Amino acid sequence: MRFYASLAAAIGILAVFSACEGLFDSECLEPEAGMVLIRGSEIDQIGADYYIDSYEASRSSATATEQGTFMGRACNYANTMPWSNISYNDANIACRDAGKRLCTQAEWSYACASLQLNAYPYGPSYIQGACNDGGATVHASGVNSACKTALNVYDLSGNLREWVQEGTRMGGSYNANANELGCGSALTSPDHITAVPQPSDGFRCCRDAF
């Protein structure tokens, strides 16, 4: 009987392992794990509280040096290569599969500006080198430790420009200049549904606070 109990327990663990695409931690079970709660503001026309991912979205097979190849749900991890070269539609689906959604432009900008106070996630003025910008390659999420808001949301400036619900891409990218890196910086496309994704395109997810 002890053997069968152990076998059943092992099968149960394997089922969780498979459902989480190789990830054992609580982020598989609790959608808000690794997210930051943002209190809404009527002034910014965000009346409801919401959660935003601390890090740019990554694939479930990503590592600190490779973004991996798995499709499926968006993950939210530090020191992991973010999911780049992604279309608006695929970003939408990846957030949905994670039990979340793309952020609205207002939510994204509000979180980036540390609740309307800053032009950049780290402060009121541009600081060269604080974030991954003006370079040639993407960095793993969170490795630029100065590139964060007061609530510890990372890489909202530079690294990858991020899709939001309205179809714009926010915050600039690793190869952007200072004018493209602010919390209000948005790149628009004639038709975001059919826009060809670029190596500098990424995303992160939000979720309503129930």
Q: How would you portray this structure in words?
A:
This protein folds into two domains: 30 residues; 179 residues, paralog of FGE (formylglycine-generating enzyme) (Alpha-Beta Complex). The protein has three helices and eight strands, in the order H-E-E-H-E-H-E-E-E-E-E. The protein has 210 residues and is an alpha+beta fold. The chain is 17% helix and 11% strand. The strands form two sheets. It has a four-stranded antiparallel sheet.
Low-pLDDT windows of residues? 1-29
How many helices?
Answer: 3
Return the average pLDDT rounded to an integer. 84
Shape: globular
For this structure, what is the CATH class of the largest domain?
A: Alpha Beta
The figure for the number of domains is: 2
Please tally the β strands and state the result: 8
Distance between the termini: 43 Å
Second-tier CATH architecture of the largest domain: Alpha-Beta Complex
CATH superfamily of the largest domain: paralog of FGE (formylglycine-generating enzyme)
Strand order of the largest sheet: 1-2-8-3
What is the string of SSEs from the N terminus onward?
HEEHEHEEEEE
* Biggest pleated-sheet summary: 4 strands, antiparallel
Beta fraction of the residues?
5-15%
Class from helix and strand fractions? alpha+beta
Instruction: Assign a percent range to the helix content.
Output: 10-25%
Q: What is the CATH topology of the largest domain?
A: paralog of FGE (formylglycine-generating enzyme)
Radius of gyration: 18 Å
